[in-house]
């Protein structure tokens, strides 16, 4: 028996998409030459407004949508030439609760494993159910479960055949805040266990909480892929709103080189810089300059851009052309 190849010999990108396009009958172009690489072991959040192409992209990778052009490589396997091998490496958790409500939990998970040609293995089914806190519900009918538990069953079904990649389409849709937090913790544990996670979400805080990298898709095109921390640092903004003790007629010449805006009522200064610039030109320096200019203030409120702010700016900035 030959030794397994070393880990370093495996491809770094577990999923590579190149030139992927999809045009439906009638001429609607849902994807426009999409290029995207997903790194092994990361949590990647794909963000985009409704109709941006997220579902079509997932469907193409999972074999549910036939692309018009392009290639999809899943851990070195060509998804179009060797689709069975490629698909076996992928688990898909759909947004909709599409499962037999009269089926028992353990049976439906075992059945999903069999759909991928995997031999019957009660130990693996038990491990998956325990990891998702479903073992105590193994004999329950799905119709008897709460919404959060039903979503866990969908994840268990997707994990039953031991995939390397897990697609989560709106994983916490329809669950309350507490269950959403539990879902986030569970997804983090799956990544710790070696599963590569790709999720779409409308909850921007979900991506901000969990993702290693962020991708933004709009009108069928990937408009940005970036490390989450770098994205927040370079595109995020730090803002300070200074409530003045006395109104100013104008911004003093000594502050002309600072990014300050004076409100119409002359009683508020707004200081806006990127989060990256804030490291060198932060609030302490601003306060010193205000004091040097003899400007008294009574309030100082600060905020930093969230990922949602950045997302909205990116999508609005990319408007134009046909929808996707």
From TrEMBL:
Which molecular function term from Gene Ontology is one that the record holds? ATP binding
The chain positions of domain ABC transporter read 15-244
SUPFAM superfamilies according to UniProt: P-loop containing nucleoside triphosphate hydrolases (SSF52540)
Entry annotated with the keyword Disulfide bond? no
User: ATP-binding among the record's keywords?
Assistant: yes
**Pfam families linked to this entry:** ABC_tran (PF00005)
Provide this UniProt record's keywords sorted from A to Z.
ATP-binding, Nucleotide-binding, Transport
Entry-linked PANTHER family:
ABC TRANSPORTER ATP-BINDING PROTEIN
Q: What is this protein called?
A: ABC transporter ATP-binding protein
Species of the source: Sphingomonas natans
């Amino acid at each position: 028996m030959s030794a397994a190849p070393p880990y370093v010999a495996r491809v770094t990108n577990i999923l590579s998409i190149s030139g992927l396009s999809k045009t439906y009958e009638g001429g609607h172009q849902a994807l426009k030459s999409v290029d995207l690489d997903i790194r092994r072991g990361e949590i990647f959040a794909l963000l985009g407004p409704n109709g941006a192409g997220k579902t079509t992209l997932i469907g193409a990778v999972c074999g549910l949508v036939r692309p018009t052009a392009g290639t999809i490589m899943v851990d070195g396997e060509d998804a179009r030439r060797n689709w069975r091998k490629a698909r076996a490496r992928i688990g898909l958790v759909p947004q909709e609760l599409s499962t037999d409500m009269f089926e028992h939990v353990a049976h439906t998970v075992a059945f999903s494993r069999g759909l991928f040609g995997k031999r019957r293995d009660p130990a693996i089914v038990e491990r998956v159910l325990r990891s998702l806190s479903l073992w105590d519900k193994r004999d329950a009918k799905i119709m008897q479960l709460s919404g959060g538990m039903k979503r866990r069953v969908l994840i268990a079904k997707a994990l039953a055949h031991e995939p390397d990649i897990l697609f989560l389409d709106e994983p916490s849709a329809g669950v309350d805040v507490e269950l959403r937090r539990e879902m986030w913790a569970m997804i983090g544990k799956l990544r710790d266990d070696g599963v590569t996670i790709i999720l779409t979400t409308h909850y921007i805080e979900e991506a901000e909480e969990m993702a290693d990298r962020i991708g933004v898709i709009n009108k069928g095109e990937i408009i940005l892929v970036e490390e989450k921390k770098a994205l927040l640092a370079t595109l995020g903004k730090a803002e300070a709103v200074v409530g003045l003790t006395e109104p100013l007629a104008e911004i003093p010449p000594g502050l002309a080189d600072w990014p300050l805006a004076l409100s119409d009522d002359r009683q508020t200064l707004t200081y806006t810089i990127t989060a990256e610039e804030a490291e060198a030109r932060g609030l302490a320096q601003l306060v010193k300059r205000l004091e040097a200019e003899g400007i008294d203030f009574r309030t100082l409120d600060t905020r930093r851009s969230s990922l949602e702010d950045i997302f909205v700016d990116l999508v609005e900035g990319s408007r134009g052309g046909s929808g996707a």
